[in-house]
Amino acid sequence: MSNERLIPEEIERVLLDEETIAARVRDLAAQVSADYGDSDDLVLVGVLKGAFIFMADLARQLSVPHRVDFIALSSYNKGSISDGAVRLIMDTRTNLTGRHVLIVEDILDTGYTLDYLLRIFRAREPASLRTCVLLSKPERRKIEVPVDYLGFEIPDVWVVGYGLDYADRFRTLPYIAALKREVYV
Ligand code: 5GP
Ligand code: MG
Questions:
Q1: Residue 158 in contact with ligand 1 by CB distance below 6 A
Q2: Mean pLDDT, residues 166-178
Q3: Quick one: pLDDT band at residue 4, thresholds 50, 70, 90?
């Protein structure tokens, strides 16, 4: 077997390579570790499935004690058009009340998903509630949501890899890449 990594033909271009992502995730983990240094009871809540790789890398770089938990959401839309309707498919197992909650999300697009999560989590009265988002497409925002830790801003293109999919494909590519428009339009 060859060690050469093949880039699937559906990929237009690589936006963020493995090293660039790893360096940024280390920075984010250092910031989070510094900010939560003297608070115990930090819970990272990863949004499935897209955040699973980011969550794993971020969590392993933290120098503060923490738990990890996950939620799964579904938008009612198909593909890339979102009407803002979000549904909770799987809730956290951890009781968030009185804990420091950090939502870990793959990508902020219209903002509806994160806004929904912030609203349902606020109602559980956590000790604090913040957001850590790997990617943001500022041009696409429909609703403003607070991002406390942000990895990268990217243009309005459909990206895959590092946890992100298109129709459940491409999630485990080690880089983040733009799909060819003809694949998703
Ligand atoms: P929002 O609610 O902010 O519009 O959408 C956030 C969700 O849409 C993300 O959690 C992600 O699941 C999905 N999403 C938005 N843009 C992209 C993209 O470029 N690639 C992938 N794979 N998912 C995206
Ligand atoms: Mg997502």
A1: yes
A2: 97
A3: low
Catalytic residue flag (residue 57): no
78: preceding bond cis by omega (within 30 degrees): no
What atom of ligand 1 comes closest to residue 47's alpha carbon? 10
Q: Please, is 155 exposed, middle or buried when counting C-beta atoms within 10 Å of its C-beta (0-12, 13-18, 19+)?
A: exposed
Nearest to 149 by CA among 55, 19, 15: 55
Whether residue 125 is predicted with pLDDT greater than 70 in this model: the reply is yes
**pLDDT of 81:** 54
Residue bearing the CA closest to ligand 1, atom 15: 109
The distance between the two most distant Cα atoms of the chain, rounded to a whole number of Å, is: 53
Tokens of 17: 């390579």
Rounded distance, CA 147 to CA 27, Å? 15
Distance 40 CA to ligand 1 centre (A): 31
Which of 109, 115, 148, 156 is the catalytic position? 109
Distance CA 52, CA 57 (A): 9
Confidence of residue 40 (pLDDT cuts 50, 70, 90): confident
Q: Atom 9 of ligand 1 has which residue's CA nearest to it?
A: 107
- pLDDT mean over 112-124: 97
DSSP 95: -
Would the CB of 118 count as within 6 Å of ligand 1?
no
